[in-house]
Amino acid sequence: LQVPHYLHKVNINLIIIMIIIIIIIIIIIIIIIIIIIIIIIIIMIIIIIIIIIILIIITIIIK
């Protein structure tokens, strides 16, 4: 009876470890997604600023 019980404990530990690993992976994925979104937003802002600057320069040249 002792061996199955020990095995059962090992199984529970394995399950806990797997759950922790899955949670860590999910957290890492979420962080990566957030970073990507932030980078995209920054790039968009930079592009918009560049477009605005170009427009301003063009209007100045035209005037």
UniProtKB/TrEMBL annotation:
<keyword id="KW-1133">Transmembrane helix</keyword>
<dbReference type="GO" id="GO:0005524">
    <property type="term" value="F:ATP binding"/>
</dbReference>
<protein>
    <recommendedName>
        <fullName>ABC transmembrane type-1 domain-containing protein</fullName>
    </recommendedName>
</protein>
<dbReference type="InterPro" id="IPR011527">
    <property type="entry name" value="ABC1_TM_dom"/>
</dbReference>
<dbReference type="GO" id="GO:0140359">
    <property type="term" value="F:ABC-type transporter activity"/>
</dbReference>
<dbReference type="GO" id="GO:0016020">
    <property type="term" value="C:membrane"/>
</dbReference>
<feature type="domain" description="ABC transmembrane type-1">
    <location>
        <begin position="11"/>
        <end position="63"/>
    </location>
</feature>
<feature type="transmembrane region" description="Helical">
    <location>
        <begin position="41"/>
        <end position="62"/>
    </location>
</feature>
<feature type="transmembrane region" description="Helical">
    <location>
        <begin position="12"/>
        <end position="35"/>
    </location>
</feature>
<keyword id="KW-0472">Membrane</keyword>
<keyword id="KW-0812">Transmembrane</keyword>
